[in-house]
Each structure stands twice: as structure tokens, then as C-alpha cells.
Specification:
The chain contains 14 helices and no strands. The chain folds into 2 domains: 22-177, no CATH class; 188-305, no CATH class. By secondary structure, it is mostly helical.
Length: 306
């Protein structure tokens, strides 16, 4: 899905049997059958919501201040947000969600409370998505993880239709993770560089020209120096590419981020670095996204310094 465009409305069926435009229909649906309510609660628990129904306290506390700054939010109180979103036309709801998306975005205000608000508003649609894939292990976690990530990274300068686009991106990433997506992975080039790094490093060759290993080290070092990623992220990525060599069986290269955030792979990395697999998946995803967004500038700066 390209920036600035919403999901396809042609009504074509994909490999999952879903019509792409059904995302528009389920954004706030919160379907009332017990199974789907349970999925919404499960996704909410993965996001550490005390309740999937009640508005989070930090959102309720922040809302009056946001209303002073953004007239678009004065049409509804936080406690009535989700019900209001179901009732109004898409253009009206999108004006409110666009404000939240800008505040929530890492490229906007990077406001944690706004991110919580946006995620909570879209939780019914996320629950519906999770119910579609309840046969897949850890599907609730995958949906929750992607909902938080996409809410953090919505391209608010170029795109609208926040609910439809965020949920469509969640759906695409979950499908890629379970191996049911035909969409190319945008991080595949970085994954290819990582594999090249491992192959060169393991071969113990001392070439006269920079190798893939040298280039990757230079890139990560400069990314740390310019605060694109943290030193911990650098170390984690290098451990991940090392694991990619030692435990290649755990990599599903046709899944999200070339398999670097797969369940089996992240479990092996987590064991080496001493944290949870969930933390590994989230930190790798965010670090690679940060590198990808800044990659042209980082490479230019490295060349200029050479």
C-alpha cells in the first residue's frame, strides 16, 4: 500500500479469502458475538490495557489539554470516543484520528498518551482481525504488536483514512509473518546485507576493499553516533545476524523483516541477550524501520566522511 492511498476498493479476493476493502468496514465495528469480543479483550491484554472497554486513564487525563490545542477534538470527549467513531461519517472520524495519529507518530509529537488513544480507538477492528486468524498461534500478540507499531509510524504528512490504513498495514504484516502474504518485504535489502555480513565474517577473509561486514559495522556505528538507533539496538542487530547464521532453521525468509521478527528466531535471540522474545521482536522492528527511514542520509554522511 503506497503512502497517501488507502486500501484497494476493487473487491478482489486475496490468498486469505478476504476482500481488501473489508478493512474499511471493520475499523470500528467491534462485532458483538462473544468470540470476537474475547479476541478484542485478548489483544487489549497484550497491549497491557486494564480494560478493553473503558478509556485508558492517561488518555482521559490528556484529552482536555489536547482539545485546547486541537479544535478537531472538541466534538467528543474521550469517554465517548469509540461510540462516536462508529456513528459519524468517515470524513468526520478521520479528522479526529488524524490529530491523534500526528501526535502519536514518532515523526510527529511522539506522544505516548496519544498513541494509547489511537490504539484503543482501533482496538475493535484489531480484535476483528485477530478473530480472522485465531487458528494461528500467537495471533493476538502479532496483531497487538503491529497495531502499536503502525500507530507509532503512521505517515500523517502524506496519508489520511487513518483507521483503514493502520488496520490494513496490521493485516498485511500479520499475513507476512504467517507466510500468507505475496507482498514484498520492504526490509529485504537490509536483511540481504545482514546475511552478506554473516557470510563474510564467518569466512575470515581479509579483503583489500570494504566487505559487507565492514559496511554494516560502519552503518550501525554511524547510526548510533547520530542517535538513529541506540547502542543496545546495534548490539541486538549484530546478535540477530549472528543467530541468522547459527540458527538459520529459525528464519522464515518470506515472513516479516525476512524472518528477523519471527517467533522461533526471536526466541533464540532472546535467550542469547537475556530479555523476552517480545522485546526482541519490537526492538528489531523499530531499529530496522529507523535505519530504513534514514538510510539514504546515513550513507551520504558515511561517504562524505570517508
Amino acid at each position: 500500500m503506497s503512502p497517501g492511498r488507502s486500501v484497494d476498493n476493487a473487491g478482489r479476493l486475496d490468498r486469505t479469502g478476504d476482500k481488501p476493502n473489508y478493512i474499511d468496514l471493520i475499523a470500528f465495528c467491534g462485532r458483538e458475538d462473544r468470540g470476537r469480543r474475547n479476541e478484542m479483550r485478548s489483544v487489549g491484554r497484550e497491549l497491557d490495557f486494564a480494560s478493553s472497554e473503558a478509556v485508558p486513564g492517561e488518555v482521559e487525563a490528556a484529552w482536555p489539554g489536547w482539545q485546547e490545542l486541537h479544535p478537531e477534538l472538541r466534538v467528543v470527549d474521550a469517554s465517548g470516543l469509540r461510540a462516536w467513531l462508529k456513528q459519524v461519517p468517515g470524513e468526520e472520524s478521520d479528522r479526529v484520528l488524524c490529530v491523534l495519529a500526528r501526535r502519536a507518530s514518532e515523526q510527529g509529537d511522539d506522544d505516548h498518551a496519544a498513541r494509547v488513544a489511537l490504539v484503543w480507538a482501533l482496538l475493535p477492528g484489531a480484535g476483528y482481525l485477530a478473530s480472522r486468524y485465531r487458528h494461528v498461534p500467537n495471533s493476538n500478540f502479532m496483531v497487538a504488536e503491529q497495531l502499536w507499531i503502525q500507530a507509532s509510524q503512521f505517515p500523517w504528512r502524506k496519508a489520511s483514512k487513518v483507521a483503514a490504513n493502520v488496520l490494513a498495514k496490521v493485516r498485511n504484516e500479520v499475513l507476512r509473518e504467517i507466510g500468507a502474504s505475496t507482498r514484498p518485504d520492504p526490509a529485504e535489502r537490509l536483511n540481504a546485507s545482514a546475511i552478506q555480513y554473516v557470510d563474510t565474517w564467518r569466512s575470515h577473509i581479509a579483503p583489500t576493499e570494504p566487505t559487507g561486514a565492514d559496511e554494516l559495522h560502519d552503518l550501525l556505528d554511524h547510526a548510533v553516533d547520530t542517535q538513529v538507533i541506540s547502542p543496545w539496538d546495534r548490539a541486538l542487530l549484530l546478535v540477530a545476524v549472528d543467530v541468522g547464521y547459527d540458527a538459520s532453521w529459525a528464519l522464515k525468509r518470506d515472513s516479516c523483516l525476512g524472518g528477523f521478527t519471527g517467533n522461533a528466531f526471536s526466541a533464540v535471540v532472546a535467550e542469547r541477550v537475556g530479555c523476552s522474545a517480545r522485546t526482541v521482536r519490537r526492538r528489531i522492528h523499530l531499529a530496522i524501520r529507523a535505519l530504513r527511514d534514514r538510510l539514504p542520509h546515513l550513507l551520504d554522511e558515511i561517504r562524505d566522511a570517508a
